[in-house]
Design goal:
263 residues, globular
Length: 263
């Protein structure tokens, strides 16, 4: 699989990350674009020679908590921040696991994990691409976006994850989708880090009620063969859990409760 890393000239965190990428002369295939990453719907055509696009960007939140995040892009409902309504992007559960674990290792090695929360986010925001992709982000305010240590950690994490993925380090992981829980997905974050399961798309509680099409997208837009969903058991109401289970049964997928998965 041929990877390319993309950042926007309008993105302070992306520029920070790229300054460290440029210092490493062995780091191949990285480019800056003019438009905001969440609006770069046509980028797949411009980088047609690549199989997987990694977007290196800022993460913004009202609380401003320092964070390093990884997630798949797409919209389960309205397209408030780029992309298409009700459309999610193609991604790889194994590469997401590889990237997230690389980020954890690099943050720990640098001591940055004492300051930054390393976390998954659920699937959200644009762009919409017909190409495998994911986001890795520095958050959540301008102070963190310009943090040289954070930029270096993310740059090293990207390189480490590509090397690890090419070495097939995560081929024995089990691809799954996640259902339920809040936006920063604390249970799924622990599962991604500590278990054999590799999470791709995550459908959070706040987009419920869900439907069959949403589940089919989560499955079909995952590069690997997904046969299992993990339900954040306490992250859904009883009615919502049953709603999810009924839909999974109709699709012939098994499910596991998050509290029964090693984390």
């Amino acid at each position: 699989m041929k990877f390319v890393t993309i950042a926007s000239k309008k993105d302070e965190a992306g520029k920070n990350i790229f300054r460290h990428i440029h210092k490493d002369q062995t780091f191949l295939n990285h480019y800056m674009i003019e438009e905001e990453s969440i609006n770069a719907d046509e980028i797949g055509n411009r980088f047609n020679d690549y199989d997987f696009i990694i977007f290196a960007t800022k993460h913004e939140s009202k609380k401003g908590k320092p964070s390093l995040t990884v997630h798949a892009p797409g919209n389960w409902g309205k397209a408030r921040f780029g992309g298409k309504k009700g459309e999610v992007c193609k991604t790889s559960s194994r590469f997401l696991k590889c990237l997230f674990n690389s980020l954890n290792k690099e943050a720990k090695n640098s001591g940055l994990n004492s300051k930054y929360n390393v976390t998954l986010e659920v699937t959200h925001h644009g762009p919409y691409l017909e190409k495998l992709c994911c986001f890795i982000e520095i958050g959540s305010s301008e102070k963190e976006w310009q943090d040289k240590n954070a930029g270096e950690v993310v740059a090293r994490s990207i390189k480490r994850s590509i090397n690890s993925f090419e070495n097939r380090d995560y081929n024995d992981s089990v691809p799954v989708i996640g259902i339920g829980g809040p936006h920063y997905a604390p249970n799924f974050t622990k599962i991604q880090k500590n278990s054999k399961y590799a999470l791709s798309h995550i459908i959070p509680q706040y987009v419920f009620p869900i439907n069959k099409e949403m589940l089919e997208q989560a499955i079909n837009k995952t590069e690997e063969d997904v046969r299992t969903a993990i339900i954040d058991w306490k992250g859904l109401k009883s009615k919502e859990r049953q709603e999810a289970i009924n839909l999974l049964n109709s699709l012939g997928l098994e499910y596991k409760r998050s509290n029964n998965v090693e984390k």
